[in-house]
Write the C-alpha cells for this entry.
Amino acid sequence: MTDTQWDLWEVFTQKKPGAPFEHAGSVRASDKEIALQNARDVYSRRNEATCLWVVKSDQIVSSSPEDLGSFFEPANDKVYRHPNFYKTPEGIKQI
Amino acid sequence: MEAELIEYCTRLADTSLIAGQRLTEWCGHGPILEEDIALSNIALDLIGQSRLVYAHVSELKKDGTSEDDIAFGRDANEFKNFLLAEQTNGDFGKTILRQYLISVYQYHQYTLLQQSTNQFLSAFAAKSLKEVTYHVRHSGEWVLRLGDGTDESHLRMQTALNELWLFTDDLFDADQLETTLADKNIAANIAQIKDLWTKQVTQLLTEATLTIPVAHNFLRKGSRKGIHTEQLGYILAEMQFLYRAYPGAKW
C-alpha cells in the first residue's frame, strides 16, 4: 500500500514578536501555501501565535537515539560549563 | 431611515449566517482533518459576523426582538441572504468556489463600508474585513489548485462554476433602498463592488483555467425581495427547529 496522504509538515509558532519559535505539532499539506494555511487553522485559532513557520518534516535532521551516549553524556560531569560559580551584584535584575 | 438601516443590516447578516450555516454541514466531514477545521473556522467567523449585526438590529428595533428571534423566528421570505449563499455544498470544490465568490464580494463590500458614515457599520466592517481577507485567500488558493489541477478536479470545478454562476447576478441586483443608502454614504456602492468583484474573480478563474459561462439569459435574482431557491427552506428547517420547538430555549 502506498501512502496517499499529503506530505507531513512540522509547525512552529511564535507567541509574540522576538520570542523563540516553538514546535506546535504537524499538519498534512499539498504544498507550502496550504501548509501555512493549515498550520494557521489548526494551531493558531486560540491566539497562540504572531508568526508561523512550517517546514517539511523530511527536511529536519535529527540525532538518533543511539547518539544519546556520545552526543550528550559527556556534558554530564562538566558542571563548570554552567555559569553557577559567579557572584552577581545585588540589584541586577535581568539575569 | 431607521427602517432602511435595519433592512440593510439584515441583508448583510443574513448572507453571513446562511453561508456560515452551510459550511457547518462540513464539520466532521471535511476531506482532511486540517480542511475540516479550516471550514469550521470560516463558518464560525461568518456566524459571528451575523451575530454582531443581529444584535445591533435588535437594539435598533427597540421592540424586544432578540438576536435569536431574528435568526430563528423568521421564515424564508423574510430572509435576505444572497441566493448564492444558500446553494448546496455539493463536493468540496463547489463549496470552496461558492465561498470564494461570496468572500470576494464581502471583501469589497466591507472595504467600502469602512468609510460608512454609520459608526456601527464602519466598525463592523473594519473588524470583519480581517476575517474575510483570510477567507478570500484560503478559498482562492483552493480554486486555483483544483481548477488548474487534475482533469477530474478541473471538470468538477467547471461544473460547479457553471451551476453557481446562475446566482452571481443576484449579488449586484441593487434596489432603491441600497442605492439611497449608498448615496448617503451609509451603504457600500454596489456598482463599485461589481467592478472590483468582476475584475478579481475573472483574474483568478482565468488563472485557474476555468471558463466563465457565457451570459445566461436566465440568471436568478430576487434575494433582496425575499425570493429564494428551494434550498433555503431546508437550511431553515434544520437551523430553526430547536428554537421553534422550544420557544425561548437557551443553550
About this structure: The mean pLDDT of chain A is 90. The longest helix of chain A spans residues 32-43. The radius of gyration of chain A is 20 Å.
